[in-house]
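Hi L.,

As promised, 30S ribosomal protein S12:
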Amino acid sequence: MYFHLRNRLKQKPFIKTRVFNKLSLAPHRKGLVLRVVIITPKKPNSALRHVAKVTIYKNIKRIFGRIPGIGYLPVKFNRVLVRGGRANDLPSVRLTLVRNIYDFSPLSMRKRRRSIYGVSRPSGFTKHKRRRYRHLHM
């Protein structure tokens, strides 16, 4: 009986490896791009997805981050901001890069989902005119 308990106490506690552990318990972290890679997704999907290998400044861990949007890709030694958000069909990709912060440029001419791609609101752009007040917007 005691032998069983002694072995149980010797075992290390099981800790899940989560995204927050990689970002050292923060919502965002600054990182440095080491290289940009093109990966193909898992079985039912087919595409060419851009992924960047990033070193996190704080804990010096190297992880893969998804590059959202079409267009400009970060170059080697660019500074980027990394947040959580995994790509379901890409194995080992659990983080996403944030656009329009540090050296990672925004997408131009985006009207919808601007906050994700780092685009500021264009001048004179109203998202939705309420039906009740539409006679006021001429």
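The longest strand covers residues 28-39.

Thanks again for sending the construct details.

K.
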